[in-house]
């Protein structure tokens, strides 16, 4: 089973962007240096961007992949390629934004938030992979291929 490099790199890029956007929303007050009460517009923009990247573009990525790959045969390849790329992208995107938000201070001030976000990155990578797989399944159903005759 060889990994689908195109899918893995695409998942890495989109999930990295999604991880960065989601982490920006967590550190928005620090990054903008404004009181919490004045962050309404910025928080809305970041939330909309996060929604467009994570579920919407993930489903589009899955749809494109589903048109290119026979998901019924290569579903393990699709899942592992997407999850691996998404996990690395989310971890990297989260780590970069956390490091920037905390002014590049080293030590435990950066280490613990990054380690703490590893669990969240795993869950987000699973969700991202499910969105991609849903898009791939939709593309497979849209091909008009005859339904399997075996049960």
Structure at a glance:
With 151 residues, this protein is mainly α. Helix content is 81%, strand content 0%.
Task: Summarize the topology.
Elements: H1 5-26, H2 28-32, H3 40-68, H4 71-101, H5 108-142
Describe the overall structure.
- The protein has helices at 5-26, 28-32, 40-68, 71-101, 108-142.
- The chain has 151 residues and is an all-alpha fold.
- It has one domain (5-142).
- The two termini are 25 Å apart.
- The mean pLDDT is 84.
Number of strands: 0
Could you tell me the mean pLDDT? 84
Helix content: over 70%
Q: H/E order of the elements?
A: HHHHH
Low-confidence stretches: none
Number of helices: 5
Biggest sheet overview:
none
Instruction: Report the sheet-strand fraction.
Output: under 5%
Gyration radius from CA atoms, angstroms? 18 Å
How far apart are the first and last residues' alpha carbons, in Å? 25 Å
- Computed structural class: mainly alpha
Overall tally of domains: 1
Shape: elongated
Structural descriptors:
0% strand; elongated; 81% helix; mainly alpha; 151 residues
């Amino acid at each position: 089973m060889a990994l689908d490099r195109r899918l893995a790199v695409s998942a890495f890029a989109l999930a990295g962007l999604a991880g960065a956007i989601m982490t920006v929303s967590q550190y928005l007050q620090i990054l903008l240096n404004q009181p919490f009460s004045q962050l309404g517009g910025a928080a809305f923009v970041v939330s909309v961007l996060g929604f467009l990247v994570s579920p919407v573009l993930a489903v589009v990525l899955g749809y494109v992949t589903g048109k290119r790959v026979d998901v019924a045969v290569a579903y393990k390849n699709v899942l592992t390629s997407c999850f691996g790329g998404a996990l690395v992208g989310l971890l990297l995107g989260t780590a970069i934004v956390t490091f920037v938000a905390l002014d590049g201070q080293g030590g435990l001030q950066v280490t613990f938030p990054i380690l703490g976000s590893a669990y969240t990155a795993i869950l987000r990578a699973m969700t991202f992979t499910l969105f991609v797989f849903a898009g791939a399944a939709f593309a497979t159903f849209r091909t008009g291929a005859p339904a399997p005759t075996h049960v």
